[in-house]
Amino acid sequence: MSIQIPQFVPQEVCLKCEGCCRFKEQRSPWRPKVTEREASVLEKKGLSLLEKIFDGNVVDSDSYIKAINLKGGCQCSFFDSNSNTCRVYVDRPFECQFYPFLLEKREEAFLISVHLSCPHIQETEHNESFQLFVKELKELFSQPETHSFLFTHPELAGDYSEFADEIMPLFSLPIKSI
Ligand code: SF4
Fold it and tell me: Does 79 have pLDDT greater than 70?
């Protein structure tokens, strides 16, 4: 199963940004992690170039989408740097839909945070629209379907502890309540 995540950052803002989908190094923790189901959907996309590079396997053994070296940096295998778009946008994984919001696992709780490096978050984090969106997320994460999704896929929770100064915690969801 998967869940539909409402989008906070308008698409036109994302299309102009030069941050997402690009990473400092090939094994960056900012690459999206995917569930088995998401990996299977991506690998069925039949992207022949990627199959040639990765022998048909675009997800590594830790469930992260592989990154490729390009223009002195790295980028997600599915990123098209010419158009600044995702080649699997309709099927992009949960983590990509959720960003700039982040999911972490802290002992007995899932922690929902936001990445302050996103330029749109920097512009809006003190606005009412941001507070309303966080309220909407809280409601979404209180739904049984969302609990079930998180419980089934705890591997999606990342570890961003080394980036604590870039991250603002929003709310947590006790695992016992799931
Ligand atoms: S799957 Fe698409 S949205 Fe996600 S990181 Fe890769 S290019 Fe970006």
Answer: yes
